[in-house]
Amino acid sequence: MKSLILVLLILVVPFQLNAQKKDKIKGDKQVVSTSGEIKESFNKLEISDNITVELQNANRNSYVLTADQNLLEEVEIDVSDETLKISTKSKITGSKKLHLNLNIQDLKSLILNDDAMVKNSSKFQTDNLSIVLNNSAKIELELDIQQNLEVYFSDNSGGKIDSDAGNILINMKNRSDLKAKFDTPNLQVNLENSADLKLDGSSNHTEYNLKDSSNLNAKKLKTQTAVLNSKNRSDIHVDASKEIEIDAEGKSKIYVYGNPEIKVKGLTDKSRIIKR
């Protein structure tokens, strides 16, 4: 019986791997455009594969796809369960152009996978937005969020964000990187496993949680009060004008800007606090 199961596994696993593998195609360098209206309603957007998408607010959902002529049919644009999914049928190994202008009425969730890229040329507005980036995906976005912005980066993803929001949550791990400018009353930052974050802007209160050699440069983020919890080995740069509470383990040098009152909750190992 065990021998039969082993034989079946040997036969099935290669079949599954082959089924998941995409054919390869290269663009013919004859650039054309096509457009269409997206009639099904959606508030979530999921983009996979090496496609560049440009977002903008609009009164109706529509798109303009500009690409090498032989690649137009390779791009799939489908709505399922209130999610607009954009991907390619084949693995595109080269193209002169592969760009999608996307006009959207409402967006609450943005998910990018596998080298996808999203950007905008004018500020994108919405009430609440969750952004998830995986597998080397990239963004360059200017946002106006009325309530809550949540950002999740992992696996070498990265980019730039300029945003106003009522509350902002940043979760980053696995060598992801972000340069951001925020204007918000409340900001929470969680970094782990070599994440890299550079912050600018302003916040009333900011909470930082770091571990596993993550890099934080927030000396240009002007915050009134801050809390820093660190189990980190890299240097940390933070600003606070009134008060900062620090609980640190590891070997970090913590550079504090803004001349706040410093409350040390814990300072172990070789961590150091340096006022600037």
UniProtKB/TrEMBL annotation:
Domain of life: Bacteria
Pfam families hit by this protein: DUF2807
Coiled coil: none
Signal peptide per UniProt: 1-19
Domain Putative auto-transporter adhesin head GIN positions: 42-152, 156-260
InterPro entries reported in the protein's UniProt record: DUF2807 (IPR021255)
Keywords per UniProt: Signal
Name by which UniProt lists this protein: Putative auto-transporter adhesin head GIN domain-containing protein
Organism this protein belongs to: Christiangramia forsetii
